[in-house]
Amino acid sequence: MIVRTTTEITDTDRDVAADNGNWRSKRIILAGDGVGFSFHETTIEAGTINEFHYQNHVEAVWLVEGEGELVDLDNNRSYPLGPGSMYLLNGHEKHRVFARTQMRMLCVFNPPVTGREVHDENGVYPLVEVG
Questions:
Q1: Is the pLDDT of residue 26 over 80?
Q2: Which residues of 11-21 are buried (b: 16+ CB within 10 A; e: fewer)?
Q3: What is the pLDDT of residue 117?
Q4: Pathway membership of this protein (predicted)?
Q5: Which of 29, 50, 111, 113 has the maximal Cβ count within 10 Å?
Q6: What pTM was computed for the model?
């Protein structure tokens, strides 16, 4: 059994922030935990626009606080986001998230991230093997 709190991982190597300060991701479960997925609490700052493209991962996102907009850049569709909204990037869609207010999201990645990934210039996480 694994029991962790976001408080205990704050300011550790599991607490990752964007260089530009737009978002912060607390990686509660990582690949090294050996459960087949990773689980993160991600906060996106109000007024920011962020582009992501997870070519190597499927991500499920559940918005628990805040409001914004999701733009599917592959299919030119836009979706309002508010508490209770969920989106699943099962087609590895390139997407943009605009946070009208600060947004707090709970995210699941498969395959799990290791915690060492860094978004490249296209917003992509490379596939990093555990080890």
A1: yes
A2: eeebebeeeee
A3: 63
A4: Amine and polyamine biosynthesis; ectoine biosynthesis; L-ectoine from L-aspartate 4-semialdehyde: step 3/3
A5: 113
A6: 0.88
